[in-house]
Each structure stands twice: as structure tokens, then as C-alpha cells.
Amino acid sequence: MRRSAGEELLRFIEDGKLILGICNGFQVLVKTGLLPYPNRSARDVTLAFNARGRFEARWVRLRTGRTRCRFLTPDTTLELPVAHAEGRLAGPDEAGWRRLLAEQCAALFYDAEDTPCGYPENPNGSVGDLAGLTDPSGQVFGLMPHPERFVNPTQHPLWTRRRPEGEPDGLTIFKTALAWLKA
Q: What is the rounded CA–CA span in Å between residue 114 and residue 101?
């Protein structure tokens, strides 16, 4: 008997593999129900048009939360570009928000401070300043910023003005996932 695509993806996760959804890929993971909680019929969140009703394309500061996401190091700051018109994470009620935090599914936040931010730090108006979610296993990760656009220091708009410190943040995300897979 042939399995559905959803069943295949759940098996993929059960086998210990990772799934990454960037921008539109994040939208797909949310709309198909793989994020934030696979195997649930109810949708806790959705992605909607940006609160300002326009396309946003620029660099943003981010922070990782207390998360089990296999792509992120907890409690770090990052800088990545965004480019989207439909990136506003919406939906969780108060109980849903508490669950996202308790299960460490709220993985990535706009701004680098522990205080709520508004526009322009949060470019789309996402609830709780969320920029990315993971599932409870930490193996499925979706985010609106584009880590693939910052894997080389010369991809940063200020690369000629400031000396690069360490690896580009996008590359760090991919290397963190790879290290987890190799462990």
C-alpha cells in the first residue's frame, strides 16, 4: 500500500532526519501542519500578509530562544536578511503561546533583546516577534529569514566596513544542523 506524502514526511522525521523550510518553505510547513505540531488536526498558527501590507526586504537582528531546534544554538544572536510579503506569524491564543514556549517550539525571534519589538525590528508584525518555529522534536525548522543568503562574509551589506567576526550566521545554522546529524 502506498503512503501519502504526509505519512512519508512523518516517517522521515521518525527516522531522525531534518526538515528545513525557509520563507515559502516555512509557509508550506505551517500550512501542511508539520509545524508547530505534526500529527495534530488543529492548526495553531498560520502565516499571513505582513502587518504593513507590503513587501519587506532587508537585514534583521534575531535571537534564538530556549529551544531544542537542531539548527540553532540556544541564546545566541544572529543577523540575516528577510524578503517577504506574507511572513506574519499569527494565531496562537494565550494557551497556544504558552505551549509554544513551554515545548520550546518558539525557536527564533526578531530583535536581539528580551523585550517586545515593533516595526521595523519585527518586519512583518509576527505575534511574539516570532521569526521561526520548530516542532517538539527539534528536527523540523521553519523560518522567514534567509540563512542561505549569508553563508559568505561578502554577502553582508557592511562587509567592506566592518571586519567579519566568526562565520556568517547563515552558515552557522547549516553547520549546527550538520553537526547534530553527525553526532
A: 14
Read off the pTM: 0.94
Q: What are the grid coordinates assigned to 18, written together?
A: 531534518
Specify whether 121 is catalytic. no
Can you give the CATH number for the domain in which 68 is found? 3.40.50.880
Confirm whether 5 is domain-assigned: no
3-state secondary structure of 58: strand
Instruction: Exactly one of 56, 79, 103, 148 is catalytic; name it.
Output: 148
DSSP state of 159: T
Are residues 136 and 37 in contact, defined by beta-carbon separation less than 8 angstroms? yes
* Domain coverage including residue 110: 23-153+162-176
- Residue range 97-129, pLDDT digits in tens: 889 999 999 999 998 566 788 899 999 999 999
DSSP assigned state of 108: E
Q: Is 23 a catalytic residue?
A: yes
Q: Exactly one of 94, 146, 165, 167 is catalytic; which is it?
A: 146
Per the structure, the count of domains in the chain is 1
Task: Give alpha helix (H) positions in the chain.
Answer: 5-14, 24-31, 94-102, 169-182
How do residues 13-37 score in pLDDT, each as one tens digit?
A: 999 999 999 999 999 999 989 999 9
Phi, psi for 95 (deg, rounded to 5): -65, -40
How many whole angstroms separate alpha carbon 52 and alpha carbon 57? Answer: 13
What is the distance between the alpha carbons of residues 154 and 81, in angstroms, rounded to a whole number? 13
